[in-house]
Write a structure and sequence with these properties.
globular, 17 strands, about 20% strand, 8-stranded mixed β-sheet, about 400 residues, 2 domains, about 25% helix
């Protein structure tokens, strides 16, 4: 009877607070460390985890839960790591309104699909794909890209799995109204299209899996964590994340541990906060993740590519960049159904994810070690794992 009265009191309290706080809107998303069915019913569940559930809370709900002694943990909001460049006459599709007029003609991000091919890339084999000796292979390897989604009917992409973790639970569909995910997908596994007139990715025979984890405001880390666990359970070999932020998420960390235990190789962007030392983003900074920095066509490090906190040896540790890959002015597939150029460690990451599929060594640990060896064969700067490019640029032999 005592617990029933407490439950009624809690429900009434939350109802009152919710009603008062509705006008204040959602303040943030939180991990509510409770398994109370009543709390879940009152607040709504984004995702369930072993140590609680996530929900979007108004400021009033947040204060009420804190007063009731419910343990809460804020869920970090991550962002895709594409780098807009103003005034370069290259319209990447995500420049702010303050950019010059060369970006005024950005195509409709959600166009009506056109039958057949209406456009061709400026180069069928982008320079980045050639630099890592890609453009073939990857058969039988499942590469899961966690991003803004994908244009499923792009002529050069063959999407084998399409899911959405940005809603409550895992739902069907992975429509890309942003364009970032479609661009990343093309670098991993574009196959030139059935007419062979399109663009090619690093591992065109790989199984392309797309899970949408990013919406208009960014990429909530609980959505990312749920997606990592989901693709690990589905049998992913490689997870590619061109996203990140300054703060580590315990949910993403635990999900990476879960995926690694299932034999998944996780690759993520180092970040675009360089050139400061130690500017690397999470989840790339996680020692179980291969963090990728960005270089250009001449193997120069992009000034904005995040740096790690390296000690100069050959051992990759927490908050260290592991590899470098092309990430400046990369042409790939667009959610318009055509092609576009983007820059960022977002663009460097899928080169490594695709290369992992192309040179897969039978398991994640062996593949990671092999990629490291390939990079050491083409070290870019100081001997050892330097802060900008790690062990170097991996190139398939």
């Amino acid at each position: 009877m005592k617990w029933m009265k407490m439950g009624v009191f809690l429900a009434v309290c939350l109802l009152v607070v919710s009603g008062i706080a509705l006008a204040q809107g959602t303040e943030a998303r939180y991990l509510v460390k409770s398994d109370s069915g009543l709390l879940k019913a009152m607040l709504g569940v984004q995702h369930n985890f072993d140590n609680g559930f996530t929900a979007e809370l108004t400021s009033g709900q947040l204060r009420a839960l804190e007063r009731l002694g419910v343990e809460l943990e804020e869920v970090p909001l991550y962002h895709t790591l594409v780098k807009p460049v103003c005034g370069d006459n290259i319209c990447q599709g995500n420049e702010p309104k303050s950019c010059p007029t060369d970006c005024s003609g950005i195509p409709d991000p959600d166009p009506e699909p056109e039958p057949g091919r209406s456009c061709v890339p400026s180069s069928q084999m982008p320079y980045g794909v050639m630099m890592v000796n890609g453009g073939s292979g990857g058969a039988g390897i499942n590469v899961a890209i966690l991003d803004t989604g994908v244009k499923v009917d792009h002529l050069d992409l063959d999407v084998k799995l399409c899911a959405d973790a940005s809603k409550r639970g895992i739902k069907k569909g992975c429509a890309d109204t942003n364009g970032h995910g479609t661009h990343v997908a093309g670098t991993v596994a574009a196959n030139g299209g059935s007419d062979s007139l399109g663009i090619w990715g690093v591992a065109p025979e790989a199984n392309l899996w797309m899970v949408k984890v990013c919406g208009p405001t960014g990429c909530w880390s609980d959505d990312i964590a749920e997606a990592i666990r989901y693709v690990a359970d589905q049998g992913a070999n490689v997870v590619s994340m061109s996203l990140g932020g300054d703060v580590e998420s315990s949910l993403v960390r635990d999900a990476i541990d879960y995926a690694a235990a299932k034999g998944v190789l996780v690759v993520a962007a180092a970040g675009n906060d360089g050139p400061a030392e130690g500017s690397i983003d999470y989840p790339g900074a996680n020692v179980k993740v291969m963090a990728v920095g960005a270089i250009d066509v001449n193997e120069n490090v992009a000034s904005w590519s995040s740096r790690g906190v390296n000690d100069g040896d050959f051992v990759i540790e927490e908050r260290e960049v592991e590899l470098a890959a092309p990430g400046v002015a990369i042409e790939s597939t667009s959610n318009t159904g055509c092609y576009t150029v983007m820059s960022g460690t977002s663009m460097a990451t899928p080169h490594v994810a695709g290369l992992a599929a192309k040179v897969w060594q039978g398991d994640a640990l062996s593949t990671r070690a092999y990629l490291q060896q390939l990079a050491r064969n083409h070290d870019l700067h100081t001997l050892g794992d330097d802060s900008a490019t790690g062990l170097g640029l991996p190139m398939a032999s």
